[in-house]
Amino acid sequence: MAWIMLLVAGVFEVVWAVAMKQSAGFTRLVPSLVTLVGMVVSFVLLAAAMRTIPLGTAYTIWTGIGAVGAFVVGVVVLGEQLNAMRVVAAVLIVCGLVMMKLSAN
């Protein structure tokens, strides 16, 4: 169950990061509220997952999901630049996440 909470926490990290971008510096109400709610949900689920999953593993996976998820949303939804170096960087992050998961007890 802790791994599912961690995965969902990572998804909410992507949600709040994208909403923050859409909030235009917290000048737009709805995206600003989505950002704040997403942050709270993400942190609460991360904290709950850390009851079982080691800190280094949980935090690394949480931030990795957020980083790669935000990258994908940026490219697919927001039309951000896609190039070979950015793809390689995202693949390396995913490789690190897999290694962290495999190393966790």
Automatic annotation (TrEMBL):
GO BP field: xenobiotic detoxification by transmembrane export across the plasma membrane
Keyword Cell membrane: yes
Record flagged with keyword Acetylation: no
GO cellular component: plasma membrane
Protein name: Guanidinium exporter
Membrane topology, record value: Multi-pass membrane protein
Lineage: Bacteria, Pseudomonadati, Pseudomonadota, Betaproteobacteria, Burkholderiales
Subcellular location(s) of the protein: Cell membrane
Stated family: Belongs to the drug/metabolite transporter (DMT) superfamily. Small multidrug resistance (SMR) (TC 2.A.7.1) family. Gdx/SugE subfamily.
